[in-house]
Amino acid sequence: MIKTLVIASNNHDKAAELAELLRDLPWRVCSLAEFNDLPQEPEETGQTFEENAFLKASYYAERLGLPCVADDSGLEVDALHGAPGVLSARYAGPGCSYNDNNAKLLRAMEGVQDAERTARFVCCAAFVGLDDVRHVERATVEGRIAHACRGSHGFGYDPLFIPEDHTQTFGEMPPERKHELSHRGRAFRKLRSFLETLS
Ligand code: IMP
User: Fold this and answer.
1) Residue 10: CB within 6 Å of ligand 1?
2) In terms of pTM, does the model score above 0.90?
3) Domain span at residue 44?
4) Does ligand 1 come within 6 angstroms of the Cβ of 121?
5) CATH number for the domain including 32?
6) How far apart are CA 144 and CA 165, in angstroms?
7) 106 CA to middle of ligand 1, Å?
8) What is the pLDDT of residues 163-195, one digit of tens each?
9) Mutate to test the pocket of ligand 1, among 9, 14, 55 (most ligand atoms within 8 A of CB)
């Protein structure tokens, strides 16, 4: 019997990336958009990416009665002592846009030299099943913060993030190239291997 797996993310950009990364598994993968009367989004009250990933996956698994995967991810900038970190989505304040966040990050990095512009994206990918199976994978991609936004692919901080050993930002790379290198690609490839042991 084909089992159903729900991608528990209300962030449309992320849900689309996850659907791509979970393609061709022996599960029917569906998004929250397929459900009517969805409960309100949970508040991301965790202090770590792991806590928030589990919080989202278990919240929806309980309410929908289906196994769920969720990710929590963000950008850690060394010159800013790890900020924006778990607050990456709302760095510039509640309801802010990706542009607001990028503008705030560029302002915070004004005058910071190339060697000090190191940063990483972190992703925790969590699975919560119906029989108390819980599993999380963590992955990172190292890089640095550009001096201006470049490129229109991807989402969030992609136009400002140059992965290590590359000159283009994630925003300038086609999605397949980003997936090969990215924190989310790496974490979900590991989670896929785990899911294959369950099916
Ligand atoms: P979350 O929905 O709480 O996990 O928030 C993740 C936030 O981190 C997003 O809204 C983006 O601002 C940022 N982020 C996470 N992953 C990426 C990525 O792959 N590219 C660009 N920004 C990202």
Assistant:
1) no
2) yes
3) 3-198
4) yes
5) 3.90.950.10
6) 10
7) 16
8) 999 999 999 999 999 999 999 999 999 999 999
9) 14
